[in-house]
Amino acid sequence: MHGQYFGPQSTDGAWFELFRNMLLRELDDRTLLIAQATQRKWLANGQRIDVQRAPTYFGQVSFHIESQVQSGRIIATVEFAGQNRPQTLLVRFRHPEEKPIRSETVDGQDWKDFDTQKEWVRIANPVRDRYSVVAIYGIGRSIPSHRMDENHMGLDPFPGGS
Question: Which residue, among 142, 72, 80, 141, has the nearest Cα to 114 in the 3D structure?
Fold first, then answer.
């Protein structure tokens, strides 16, 4: 009788950590980074990414990302289950055609703290249990990206480019 072979433990653990970090990653400065290295094709029109109750340093975190790029947007919802929060929440939006973010909304309000080069929105000191973040692409006036403060100027979770 033969069982399933999963490879050496170190290989399984490394693969799981790599896959987890593509979707969800805690950084040393109490930053939670969501969707850091998702494949662009994962966000083709109509595609979804769902993560439920992922254990993190900040408690369980769930998020849902839905691509509506034909309508010029990608929508993310992030939910925290515990009381512990990151100092900074970063949500990355990797448009399947590498289009730049034109504007962002957080919980229906215009949001200017985003970086078009790194394709992320930044929420400093998140206190609510749930956030709805919308990256808007396409025709319209472009809102310049906000430069990260000195605490994040040196932070580059994407060394060598994205």
Answer: 142
